[in-house]
Please model this.
Amino acid sequence: MNTVACPKKIVALSGGVGGAKLALGLSHLLRPDELTVIVNTADDFDHFGLRISPDLDTVMYTLAGINDMERGWGLAGETWGLMGALEQYAAESWFRLGDRDIATHLVRSQRLRDGESLSQVTAHLCRSLGVVHPVWPMSDDPVRTMVNTDRGILPFQQYFVRERCNPKVTGFQFEGIDAARPNSIFVDLLRDTTLGAIVICPSNPFVSVSPILGLRDVRTGMVGGNAPVIAVSPIVAGAALKGPTGKMMRELNMPVSAFAVAAHYGNLLSGIVIDPSDADEAEAIRALGIEVQMVPTIMNTLQDRIDLAKSVLTFAGCLQ
Ligand code: FO1
Model:
């Protein structure tokens, strides 16, 4: 591992694909005792009686090096025999479960039924896949994103996968957020005097990061703590790199820009990393009291992920 000396602990807040890419970059620079990845679970849902945790799956598979890079979710080299069999029964097939991927959901569901917490199950899955950096769900309690749209209120996966993000978004609700307790490891880290930085990965600010920030005491813990909070903009040159972030911003009457992302996070941020193609927004972001670092944020290769992670850590003051 190409580790660099980082005297402090780093917490990365992640959704699916974009977050997992940066988490992978960070994992190449930091030891397991230096990096903790806290993952959104508000996309989770039950399907055929199985608990699916898409963002945990994506982060876990990415850190294990077994993710499908083209599709963005699921396992590389997957086969789809199960889906063919489901279709023969005219069963629901809008959410695709791969033949090997389904083992993850079977094991997770059975262990949850046996009384383990989602954290315990995730630790088992990660250990089994050889993931050495700690990956934790944001909470062991259920939080579920509901999307307010012009076609009614839709559970997140129905909006995202079944309806392919076509309905027009008017807002979001996170069911269960008020009762949900943030993961105790996350809470302890927010209070840890050796916490060096909190990195908000380039995940969807509305549906991937908001649920994490919306958990009890998280925002206040982040604003009141000493560790800098650094976001990486998921918007580059007026468009989202992947997924519906840009479409959502337009529908919520926000400009699709790195500036709008910075303004959305507001006083939570010490700094934001933006792509050089958004250089003309730096001044306006700085006027919000948020520092700006400009480096390439598009992560096509593993080296791109490591380079961006290195820039984020340097910006946070964790590297010389
Ligand atoms: N995304 C899709 O667009 N279509 C799918 O059929 C699909 C299946 C799926 C199965 C397991 C899993 O862990 C994730 C899966 N995803 C699928 C990804 C997914 O649900 C979304 O990308 C996230 O929720 C958004 O972060």
About this structure: The first strand starts at residue 9 and ends at 14. Residues 15-16, 43, 52, 54-55, 57, 73-74, 95-97, 101, 157, 160-161 surround FO1 (CB under 6 Å). The chain is about 40% helix and 20% strand. The mean pLDDT is 96.
